[in-house]
Specification:
Blueprint lengths: L8 E16 L2 E9 L4 E7 L12 E11 L2 E5 L2 E4 L2
Parallel strand pairs: 3-5
Antiparallel strand pairs: 1-2, 1-4, 2-3, 4-5, 4-6
């Protein structure tokens, strides 16, 4: 994931290491940090509180387009699936 660049489509698997509910750009959001072992990716699910099943420690795979927000790699409203 460290090699990801802005506007690149990515599929990343990792563990949710942080989760918070709150406003993101004045919109209700669930904000998560996904760690894949090479770095962290910020996931922003807008208009939702909370995302069912999304908790710290869960492993999941996300897919979406990377944007850079204040020097952080961010994916807005990614597709996601949990790993069993």
């Amino acid at each position: 994931m460290v090699d990801a660049t802005e506007r690149q489509r990515v599929v990343v698997s990792g563990t949710i290491v942080a989760l918070e509910m709150g406003p993101w750009r004045e919109v209700a959001a669930c904000i998560a940090q996904l760690d894949d072992g090479t770095g962290r990716l910020t996931l922003v699910f807008t208009g939702v509180r909370p995302v069912p099943g999304l908790v710290e420690g869960v492993r999941c795979t996300v897919e979406g387009t990377v944007l850079t927000d204040e020097a952080e790699l961010t994916v807005w409203n990614p597709f996601y699936r949990f790993e069993l």
